[in-house]
């Protein structure tokens, strides 16, 4: 009988396979930092500081050096979220073959675990993304909105390869129905209609994902009544705005907005694109105080805006109007186009407990899963827990773009 029982190694390998298979979004983003966490003899704790490339301005028309300081900017990846799923089996269930055991127990357990992790990461990354495209409340039924999102990525110098797009099945169905003429008649067309998936178009791989974030706007806002409140930028990297005349005090985190006379620029030449810079609210200390992303740089190597109203010593932004992307109370499903290096996901290897005879850990392609079992002799049951320790970060949110749509 012992030879026919499922071993913990078999269960762990199958759990890892299912977890990897169901990581719809996680599997498409950067996972190169996984090896930095939890390695024996080289543990770094739960936080990794990721350094971003320095930026410089050119010396033009002069042979005299203009030496610039190398200002190092970094972001933090924290791996501190431990999720899991807990089960128990009796001896009869452990005597099943692996396929049957997987179908009855592991598949539904890992589907729930990975679906929720994938959703949390996708929603978190979408909230961190400030570029946006599309008309809120309008159905995405063509390549126009994905094309506008592609423009945002191009303007922010995202590499042309490794771009992906996550949309739900309603948006995907509308796109599939309307883009057939953009492809030559081939097996790819029939594949779209059979599976409801678009393979690649508009410079991105299209993925169908029901876990995309639906932004809930609970505030009725009149854009013309919202203005910046006596703000002058005297330092670089300001990320807090004081706003006056907000009709409803509830400003949801994740709200996109633009500011009049604040324009986006080319990241290298600093030339204005002639379109408003896009921002998102990442926190609200009070109804009239917004913490925003990205921080505003009016000059220097990290300049990211071109401003109009100038004074002798600073840039005055007081009385400039704010326009939110979604002024009407409603729900807005948000697709997400991104380069894989816009975001990163990492797992850490959980420890194997010394007093546990059945505690196994397996790692594959950036996912580390630990399965731990212990017996309950009174009830003839085997208690099983499956755990994943993970974290994620938006390294380059400018290499991503939200796509506003409408509920169908």
Note the topology:
Layout: H1 8-21, E1 47-52, E2 73-78, E3 81-90, H2 91-94, H3 98-128, E4 132-133, H4 144-155, E5 163-167, H5 169-178, H6 187-195, E6 200-201, E7 204-208, E8 214-217, E9 227-228, E10 232-233, E11 238-244, E12 256-265, E13 272-286, E14 289-296, E15 305-307, E16 315-316, E17 322-324, E18 330-339, E19 343-348, E20 358-364, E21 367-376, E22 381-394, E23 400-404
Parallel strand pairs: 4-23, 5-7
Antiparallel strand pairs: 1-2, 3-22, 5-18, 6-7, 8-18, 9-11, 10-16, 11-14, 12-13, 12-15, 12-17, 13-14, 18-23, 19-22, 20-21, 21-22
Helix pairs in contact: 1-3
Q: What does this 3D model show about the protein?
A:
The chain is an alpha+beta fold and 408 residues long. 20% of the residues lie in helices and 35% in strands. It folds into 2 domains: 1-53 and 74-214 and 329-408, Alpha-Beta Complex (phage-related protein like fold); 219-328, Elongation Factor Tu (Ef-tu), domain 3. The chain contains 6 helices and 23 strands. Helix 1 (8-21) packs across helix 3.
CATH architecture of the largest domain: Alpha-Beta Complex
Radius of gyration, rounded?
A: 25 Å
Q: How would you characterize the largest beta sheet?
A: 7 strands, mixed
What is the count of structural domains?
Answer: 2
- Number of helical runs? 6
User: Which CATH class of the largest domain is shown?
Assistant: Alpha Beta
The CATH topology assignment of the largest domain is phage-related protein like fold
* Averaged pLDDT: 78
Low-confidence stretches: 189-196
Strand proportion: 35-45%
Number of strands: 23
How far do the termini sit from each other? 54 Å
**Percent helix:** 10-25%
Element order, helices and strands? Answer: HEEEHHEHEHHEEEEEEEEEEEEEEEEEE
Global geometry: globular
Structural class: alpha+beta
């Amino acid at each position: 009988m012992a030879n026919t029982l499922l071993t913990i190694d078999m269960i762990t390998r199958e759990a890892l396979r299912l977890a990897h298979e169901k990581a719809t979004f996680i599997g498409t983003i950067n996972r190169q930092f996984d090896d930095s966490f939890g390695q024996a003899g080289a543990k770094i704790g739960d936080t990794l500081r990721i350094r971003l490339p320095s930026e410089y301005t050119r010396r033009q028309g002069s042979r005299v050096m203009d030496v610039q300081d190398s200002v190092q900017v970094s972001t933090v990846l924290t791996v501190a979220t431990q999720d899991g799923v807990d089960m128990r089996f009796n001896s009869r269930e452990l005597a099943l073959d692996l396929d049957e055991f997987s179908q009855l127990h592991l598949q539904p357990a890992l589907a729930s675990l990975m679906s929720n992790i994938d959703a949390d990461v996708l929603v978190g990354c979408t909230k961190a993304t400030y570029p946006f495209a599309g008309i809120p409340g309008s159905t995405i039924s063509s390549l126009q909105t994905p094309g506008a999102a592609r423009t945002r990525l191009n303007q922010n110098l995202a590499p042309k390869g490794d771009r992906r797009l996550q949309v739900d099945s309603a948006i995907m169905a509308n796109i599939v129905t309307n883009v057939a003429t953009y492809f030559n008649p081939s097996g790819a067309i029939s594949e779209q209609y059979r599976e409801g998936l678009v393979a690649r178009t508009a410079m991105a791989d299209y993925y169908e994902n029901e876990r995309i974030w639906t932004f809930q706007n609970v505030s009725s806002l009149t854009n013309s009544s919202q203005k910046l409140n006596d703000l002058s930028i005297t330092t670089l990297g300001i990320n807090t705005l004081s706003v006056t005349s907000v009709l409803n005090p509830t400003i949801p985190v994740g709200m996109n907005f633009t500011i009049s006379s604040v324009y986006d620029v080319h990241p290298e030449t600093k030339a204005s694109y002639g379109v408003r810079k896009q921002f998102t609210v990442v926190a609200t200390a009070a109804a009239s105080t917004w913490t925003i992303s990205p921080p505003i740089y009016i000059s220097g190597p990290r300049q990211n805006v071109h401003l109009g109203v100038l004074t002798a010593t600073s840039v005055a932004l007081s009385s400039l109007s704010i326009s939110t992307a979604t002024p009407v109370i409603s729900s807005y499903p948000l697709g997400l186009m991104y380069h894989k290096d816009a975001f990163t996901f990492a797992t850490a290897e959980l420890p194997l407990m010394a007093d546990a005879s059945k505690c196994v850990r397996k790692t594959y392609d950036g996912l580390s899963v630990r399965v731990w079992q212990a017996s309950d002799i009174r009830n003839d049951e085997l208690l099983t827990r499956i755990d994943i320790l993970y974290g994620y970060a938006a390294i380059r949110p400018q290499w991503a773009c939200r796509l506003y749509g409408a509920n169908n």
